[in-house]
Amino acid sequence: MIRIFKNKTSKKAGFTLLEMVLVIAIMMIMSVYLYATFRTVAHSHLKVTLVNDMHDYASLSLKAIENNLCNATKIGTGDDIKLDLNSSYVMIKDANALPGFTQYHTATGQPRWRLKLKITTDAASKTATVVVEMFDNGVPSADVAYSDSVTVYLPAAKPEDIKDLHDAGSCSFSTDPVT
Question: How many contiguous H segments (helices) and E segments (strands) does the chain have?
Fold first, then answer.
C-alpha cells in the first residue's frame, strides 16, 4: 500500500483584503488624474471652437462690409454700417450682415461674444479700413479675444466725398452713380 501525504500548509488562491483595498485606492487616485485630464481636453476644445467661430464670423462680416463699400461713391458719419443694440451682430443698412448666423449664448442667456467696430478712412489713398474686435462674454474681464480687419479701396469715390473717420463705431455710405 502506498501512502499519500497531503501538505497541510497549502494556501488557497485569492487576494487578501489588504491587497483589494490597495488596488481600490490606486484606482481612485488614477481616476482623479484621468478626470482632470479629460476636463482639460474638453475645455481646450471648447476654447478652440469658440475662437474658430469668432474667426468665421469676423471674416464673413468683413467680407459683407467689403462687398458693400467697394462700390461706394461717398462715405462719412452715419449708421449704414453699425452694430445692433447688443453689440453682437454687424448691421448693414439696418439688416443683419449675416442673416441666419446665430452665435452661442452664455449660461445667463447673453450672446457669447460682443463686437466693437473701428472704421478709419483715408481720403488721400481712397481707402476705408474696418476692424472688428471680438470680446468673450464668458470671460467679461478679458481683453480682445479675436480681431480681424480689412482695407477697402474705394475706386468710385472722390477724395472730397470721403469724410475723415478715425476709429468710428459706424459709418454711412452711398453707392449713387458718379456724375
Answer: 1, 7
Cell matching residue 9: 500548509
Give the contacts of 94 (CB within 8 A, at least 6 positions apart): none
Q: What secondary structure does DSSP assign to 59-124, as a single string?
A: HHHHHHHHHHHTT-SEEEEEEEEEE-TTS-SEEETTEESSTT----B-TTSSBSEEEEEEEEEETT
Q: Which of 35, 72, 54, 68 is nearest to 111 (CA)?
A: 54
Low-confidence stretches of the chain (pLDDT < 70) are 1, 3-12, 178-179
Quick: pLDDT tens for 107-157.
888 888 899 999 999 999 999 999 999 998 888 777 898 999 999 999 999
**What are the grid coordinates assigned to 52, written together?**
474658430
Quickly count: other Cβ atoms within 10 Å of residue 11's Cβ: 5
CB 113 within 8 A of CB 136: yes
